[in-house]
Amino acid sequence: MNIFYNLIKYFLFLTYWLLIANISFRVLMKRRNIPASMSWLLTIYIIPFIGISIWFFFGELYLGKRQKKIANRIWSISNTCLNELKSYKHIFQTHNSEVANSLFQLCKHRQGISGIKSNQIKLLSNTKDIMQMLIRDIYLARKNIEMVFYIWKPGGIADDVALALIDSAQRGIHCRLMLDSIGSIEFFQSPWLDIMKQSGIQVVEALQFNLSRIFLRRIDVRQHRKIVLIDNYIVYSGSMNLVDPDLFKKSSGLGRWIDLMTRIEGPIAAAIGIIYSCDWEIETGLKILPQLPDKKISKNKFNINSSVQVIASGPGFPKNMIHQALLIAIYSAKTELIMTTPYLVPSEDLLQAICTAAQRGVNVSIIIPLCHDSILVKWASRVFFTELLEAGVKIYQFKKGLLHSKSILVDQQLSLIGTVNLDMRSLWLNFEITLVIDDSDFGYNLLTIQNEYISDSQLLDKKIWSMRSYWTRILEKIFYFLSPLL
Fold first, then answer.
1. Of these residues, 137, 406, 438, 439, which one is catalytic?
2. Identified catalytic residue from 167, 231, 373, 456
3. Catalytic residue list contains 411
4. Could you read off the pLDDT of 10-44 as tens digits, one per residue?
5. Are 306 and 442 in contact (CB under 8 A)?
6. Exposure of 211 in the CB half-sphere (CA atoms within 13 A)
7. What is the pLDDT confidence band of residue 300, given thresholds at 50, 70 and 90?
8. Does residue 477 have an active-site annotation?
């Protein structure tokens, strides 16, 4: 019996060290940034059993085997569509403003197309009004409706959107709906799933959560995009989930979630349609052909002073593209840089870019929520405050609800609006989308909204911040240590 127990003991001991050695080798062989690599190694060696478990859940397996195979080749396939899109030369902008030029050049060389002219672009900040406008556009649809959201929570005005979508499907409009499995869990447990399918809507549960496959892929890779495409011409995108703002997380006591969305009419819909078709194929294995712009559209209908690019991230899309775009936008700032984000856990490169902007005389403001829905991220973000404040960055804490808007405005000319938070998960993991808009009128509208945020915020005082307790600083450092894993 003792021999048996000794064999079991030696087997477990050998298995343990083989796991430690294997994970250590994989951490070292994959070129992560040094803080992330050190965090993984220290976690594995200091709290080994917990560290090993965390690695298997969140380490490096991004997608399931079939999805990964499709994702590895998806962008080259979509380039066929991009090449066809490039033949529509009249839809592309030939020049950009000085502050936007470098970023649009990056997009052109890495994604294959220049900035696209828009017919009409609106910045929307009232969630109720956005939902009403969306419902109207759905009822007016004539060909097709494609939607993807991280969260669809039934109830209130979200049900009105569902009814409009069902009505459109029943009158012959081709409707596709893709929702994240975890973010929209309440939807998938509701009667709306069967009702929509029975009406003819194609509903896909993106990145489906399955306990039996928990070790085969990362469970925290999420479909975080928010997109609506109508008739291959109208586009909605931004930070808003499909929820009733009066009902969503009401019990949390945080107040309303504050969001931004853009509504664009024009050929940018074709570029976003290519991204949607890639996402659809990754999830279903089925190809859908994105609709290209109508060549009959008159050149006179385009806004010659506006240029729009779309950047997508996630497995299968150009690597680090959004991170590069953020860095270029920040370094392009000459006079003013305003950023809004609910989650502030920047990479070291982004942190230095923001601090450097302030130190070279740019008026830099960051607006974040005062109250937060994530305790982990709230504490992890605090460790960056001292360095930002010392560099001269103004940090505003929004008091009237949970500020969920993700926006960057550079010199009142270049705007970035989308789903990307300033944290590791958005920058390098999730399926995200950002609209890059070179338009002074749009920039003015964004500035107006950001100034409203600032008026409803409190400015973080550098002296008061420096007087926080010793134990608070220790807690911040602990969460900072974990920030590369968040």
1. 406
2. 231
3. yes
4. 777 777 677 777 767 766 666 556 666 776 677 77
5. yes
6. 0
7. low
8. no
